[in-house]
From TrEMBL:
GO cellular component: cytoplasm
Domain SET: residue ranges: 113-339
Main location: cytoplasm
Pfam families per record: Rubis-subs-bind, SET
Full protein name: protein-histidine N-methyltransferase
Length: 517
């Protein structure tokens, strides 16, 4: 989630694991703690079918992704294999429980492990699930939450857990801390006497990340660049699932001792990945040498609002600390700030859209064409000011949709040969280069007119790629009709993006008209 703390049973059960040794909770957990509760089994033929489908999934996902307008092309095939796997595994899913029943036990666990819970309580938070409620007045900038490292599920705790040996063997786990955390979480979930059970029991049982969207719900994202991100996220998770499913079939001692080999369904993996994605936070490693990721109980019950980072890790005390970003009255919901993310990023990584988001922005991909005879020269100038000749830029919500970087890119992108040679030849000064990003300095009126006319036209074209208008979206959103979370989020996201495009068009057209006067 934040920085200063940046937020950011697949197969049949084998015989009970009597041979597996008990170990001390949250201590040396190299061995499986105890025999797992009996799990439903898949028939031999169903197991074989899942194995075949997993191989198919690996093949489909191994094909290079189709970029651009054809991004939908791969999805139906991947989705159809995943859905067949899910259908075969449907009898193996854990029963859905009411998490709120486990809140008292969780609070007791926190208190017995030294957490002061006198400031906040967990409480229903409207459309945001649950959140933290102030039990007393919390003054702005006061420290209201301190969570010791020993309560966190981290990459370090994963290494010293039953998963540790697999981490030492597997290059993917070594390189991808978020996947390590997801598997760590699953191992602890399926280890009945895990130290972390009171925490795991209060986690949501499902999420609204795009991994949970149906194909119809994904259609709500059409027109938005977020659709491509959602599809590639789905593809990546499907590929990871297939990879780990296969790995977990191996009869190696460091695998057979894992408590997840009988529970590794697609739904379980999607749940674990979504838990990590929506709740993880950056923390320093135990030795303080690097930044890593962890799940911080209770702190991760805070919902997001506009503001600034107020959480940090106190290395001396080995605790995560959270300060109030403003005054909160007793009974009020206590928020934190997850980071300056766009609604597209919130949707993909956090499973929500925040209409009041001050930091919303729309990603647009721009590049100097390799067929442009001035490609070489333009690329050199852009590189000198730290801008790649082909990359993503952003149009921002608010008064100034175009920032200095995009302006500089567009000035060079639209520049003719004479001007490029005159201003940005061999003996170009740093001062001239710096001016490219400066809104108050015009290179030439002609160049400036081209810039604003280009962005005005591009924004208008982007607006047309959405299948509906902003008015149509607003009328559905405000119609009082019952909408699913993905439908609502899709509408909120599209409305926000269209507003950014409309304000860009207005802004660019005023700039252009001023120059034409
Ligand atoms: C770190 S958790 C916060 C606790 C969470 N609400 C719960 O019930 O467990 C982050 C999740 O809370 C929800 N959330 C947080 N801030 C939100 C906001 N401003 N609007 C809507 N949902 C929000 C989203 O579902 C997000 O994935």
């Amino acid at each position: 989630m934040g920085k200063k703390s940046k937020k950011g049973g697949g197969k049949a059960a084998p015989p009970p694991a009597q041979e597996k040794k008990a170990a001390v909770a949250n201590g040396d957990k190299k061995d499986k703690v105890s025999a797992p509760a009996p799990v439903p089994e898949l028939s031999k033929s169903a197991r074989r079918d899942v194995r075949d489908l997993v191989s198919q999934l690996l093949d489909v996902c191994a094909k290079p992704p189709v970029a651009g307008a054809k991004e939908w092309d791969d999805y139906p095939e991947i989705n159809s294999v995943v859905e067949k796997i899910r259908k075969l595994q449907s009898g193996l899913s854990s029963p859905v429980s009411d998490r709120s029943q486990n809140f008292p036990g969780f609070m007791d666990w926190l208190s017995s492990n030294g957490v002061d819970t006198s400031t906040v309580d967990i409480s229903k938070a409207g459309d945001s699930g649950f959140g933290l409620k102030a039990k007393q007045h919390i003054k702005e900038a006061s420290l209201f939450l301190t969570i010791p490292r020993k309560l966190m599920l981290t990459v370090d705790s994963a290494k010293s857990s039953v998963l540790g040996d697999l981490i030492s063997e597997d290059k993917i786990l070594q390189a991808m801390p978020n996947i390590t955390l997801a598997l760590h979480l699953l191992c602890e979930k399926h280890q009945p006497d895990s130290f972390f059970q009171p925490y795991i029991n209060i986690l949501p049982t499902s999420y609204s990340t795009p991994l949970y969207f149906t194909p119809e719900e994904l259609q709500n994202l059409k027109g938005s660049p977020v659709l491509g991100d959602a599809l590639s996220q789905y593809r990546n998770i499907a590929r990871q699932y297939a990879y780990f499913y296969r790995l977990l079939q191996k009869q190696e001692p460091f695998i057979t001792k894992l408590p997840i080999t009988d529970h590794f369904t697609f739904d379980e993996y999607r749940w674990a990945v979504s838990t990590v994605m929506t709740r993880q936070n950056q923390i320093p490693t135990v030795d303080g040498s690097k930044v890593t990721f962890g799940l911080i109980p209770l702190w991760d019950m805070c919902n997001h609002t506009n503001g600034h980072y107020t959480s940090d890790f106190n290395v001396e005390k080995n605790v995560s600390e959270c300060y109030a970003l403003r005054d909160f009255e007793a009974g009020e919901q206590v928020y934190i700030f997850y980071g300056a993310r766009s609604n597209a990023e919130f949707l993909i990584h956090n499973g929500f859209v925040y209409p009041e988001n001050n930091y919303d922005r729309l990603c647009i991909k721009l590049g100097i064409s390799k067929n442009d005879p001035l490609f070489q020269h333009k690329s050199e100038v852009l590189t000198k000011i730290g801008i790649s000749p082909s990359r993503s830029f952003f149009l921002h919500k608010g008064e100034f949709p175009v920032n200095g970087e995009l302006l500089a890119f567009l000035r060079i992108f639209t520049m003719d040969e004479d001007l490029l040679k005159e201003k940005f030849g061999n003996d170009v000064t740093m001062e001239t280069l710096d001016q490219l990003k400066n809104m108050d300095v015009v290179i030439t009126d002609e160049n400036e007119k081209k810039v604003w006319s280009f962005i005005e036209t591009r924004a208008a074209l982007l607006l047309k790629t959405y299948p509906t208008t902003e008015e149509e979206d607003l009328s559905v959103l405000n119609s009082g009709k019952e909408l699913t979370d993905p439908q609502k989020m899709g509408l909120q996201l599209r409305i926000g993006e269209k507003q950014i495009l409309e304000s860009t068009i207005k802004y660019a057209s005023e700039k252009r008209q001023n120059l034409e006067k």
